[in-house]
């Protein structure tokens, strides 16, 4: 082989490696001083404060003259009309076990009767059903892990119904008529074994039934807000009433209130009649809007009371009287950048960006900062400061030394 042809082939073989080596050296030179880049994107951040919250609702207590054990005839939060039986009073706890078994049987019967399927279903229907089963299992697992057993159990019947439907679809069973009849027979037998109830408690008004009694039903009634003071609120925390003879309660209004004691400093940004979002960690961190109807201040008190009116009542919401929440004071929208990218040049605050291989300084105006990031104003094109300001999709330089406007990075 001729020497020239041999050299050509050797060069052709090693040239890709030389190019890669060159690029690595270029990048190494560019970022040898711990410098990295980040694209400018639109974002928003919530400014929040942690607060203690106290739930206030119109709650009517239900009493019984009989002592014994209480059995709820309906589920927690179930809506009903006046004179609906809501609680049965028995002498002994074994009766509760029988009632629990009867309720379990009724749920199974209901699930089996709801498990019939259309014979014209398709494969896609099975796939959709499998997805629903999977989502229900995840929901139950999540709530059990969080210790929320009641929320997990509420999905039990729907999950059973879906699993039964799947059995019918894939021909694992022909039907559930025999099982339903067996369960009805067992239910009748259990009913006949029950001793007479000592008392039946009826709903005095239409509304939502709850068995969760804490002794603050009359203390933290919405009517108390008319004359409440800061000092009166703290006194009320020690004024629980007796729950003797109370079998449950009826919540009679969809409007409820959240009372939050906050420091004067944290109260400044909250304006009456404005709406704010409140995050409830006890209810999977759901965010609900509430209108600030009242700010209560009192001379000599360090804290103020913020009163929010709520009208949303989500399913499975946790109405524990006292709980922690986050109050969202404001929402800031603009460009998000890292705080450690900010520089000061000639008394101006800004960042260095990379335009091609040239460093440029762009001014910024901070709106809010949290967790190592800032939201800065997105300057519009019609502004006289647009040319010198940070733009969407700019490449911001983070770190690096000896940077200046116009520097070429090779």
Write a concise synopsis of the structure shown.
The chain is of the alpha+beta class and 410 residues long. The chain contains 8 helices and 20 strands.
Question: What this model shows, in words?
Answer:
It is a single chain. The protein is α+β, with helices and mostly antiparallel strands. Among the domains are: 36-45 and 334-398, Beta Barrel (conserved putative lor/sdh protein from methanococcus maripaludis s2 fold); 66-202, no CATH class. 29% of the residues lie in helices and 32% in strands. It is built from eight helices and 20 strands. The strands form five sheets. The protein has a six-stranded antiparallel barrel with strand order 2-10-13-12-11-14. Strands 3-9-8-5 form a four-stranded antiparallel beta sheet, with no helix packed on it. Strands 4-6-7 form a three-stranded antiparallel beta sheet, with helices on one face. The longest helix is centred in the first third of the chain and has 28 residues, at 3-30. The relative contact order is 0.17. Mean pLDDT is 85; it is low at 20-32.
